[in-house]
Write a structure and sequence with these properties.
By secondary structure, the chain is mainly alpha-helical. It has 15 helices and five strands.
């Protein structure tokens, strides 16, 4: 638990640095790159659960910390002291530090914090189970897509994107926003009201958006983000980072769609999002990627579309 607490401090610091860097270089980095920058953070979230003893983590950290407290001219001596002359005193300083903290802290405090953390994980798992059951109910109520025009348009979009695998498409009355769900067997679900109000250009944009999620394997990121949310339910910076990652995912997906469109169609795509925002709410399933989002995200996506310029042959 002590190592978990220390790692949370480092992870929070790295998230803060990344957020600052994204803000500074937001006009330089592509939207896809801004989204991809979050994946190393997902990897860092697994660090506290990895056993470090077999790779000598305490020795490395001890040498780095000791090196910083001495002049550069004594670096060789310091390294010798850290890893050679006094291994018992320096190599396991983290263990000594944890023991000293524990000796000053009542044992019941550690058990209490561990119990609260585990109870929070249990509550988060219950919420995930609830969402999974809702998703299962959605699948049972959905029907295979019957509209010939939409099916034909879907095949055209798949060919245009070079997708050879047939992703099943269903219609349902229990959604306001199109979503793609599933890791091994992804499926696209379209709201019936959007099919009944069929407009070819709007439907094409929606299908292209959902197929972009499939093409970039966003389902894997969805599962990893939800797993991180379960274990880091107490860390507001991690929750904010996961929220920003989801937002960056949608912006990157919009940009990928824009790359496929003619410049004259950018405004139509933006209008589709605006009209769509009046009808949709947040995606109700944690394992789904959809076209919807809150108004703040919609505003950001509209600004991204309005400022988008198709890259040149040498651009990103």
């Amino acid at each position: 638990m002590m190592r978990f607490f220390i790692c949370n401090i480092f992870i929070s610091g790295i998230i803060g640095i990344l957020l600052a860097a994204k803000q500074i270089f937001k006009n330089t980095l592509s939207s896809r790159m801004q989204y991809n920058l979050w994946f190393p953070v997902l990897g860092l979230l697994a660090v506290p659960f990895i056993p470090f003893r077999f790779i000598g983590f305490p020795q490395i950290l001890s040498w780095v910390c000791t090196l910083g407290s001495f002049p550069v001219s004594n670096a060789e001596t310091v390294m010798g002291e850290a890893v050679g002359k006094n291994p018992a005193g320096n190599t396991y300083w983290m263990n000594d530090f944890a023991l000293s903290i524990n000796s000053k802290t009542p044992p019941i405090a550690g058990y209490l914090l561990s119990g609260i953390w585990i109870a929070g994980i249990f509550v988060m798992i219950l919420l995930v189970i609830k969402s999974v059951l809702r998703l299962r109910a959605l699948k049972k109520s959905a029907l295979p897509l019957q509209n010939r025009n939409v099916r034909k348009l879907y095949r055209q979009c798949s060919e245009e994107m070079g997708i050879t695998r047939a992703v099943p498409v269903y219609s349902t009355a229990f959604l306001k926003s199109p979503v793609i769900v599933g890791l091994l067997r992804p499926c696209i679900y379209l709201p019936i009201h959007l099919i009944s109000d069929y407009k070819e250009s709007d439907m094409r944009y929606m299908l292209l958006h959902e197929l972009q999620h499939y093409k970039h394997k966003d389902a894997i990121a969805c599962y990893l983000m939800n797993l991180a949310g379960v274990f880091y339910w107490f860390n507001p910076l991690v929750w904010y980072a996961l929220k920003e990652m989801r937002n960056d995912r949608e912006v990157a997906c919009d940009t990928s769609v824009l790359k496929m469109l003619e410049e004259e169609a950018y405004e139509d795509y933006g209008h589709t999002l605006i009209n769509f925002a009046e009808k949709v709410s947040l995606t109700p399933f944690p394992f789904a990627s959809g076209l919807g989002g809150n108004m703040k995200l919609m505003k950001r996506r509209i600004i991204n579309i309005a400022s988008y310029e198709k890259p040149t042959l040498g651009g990103n």
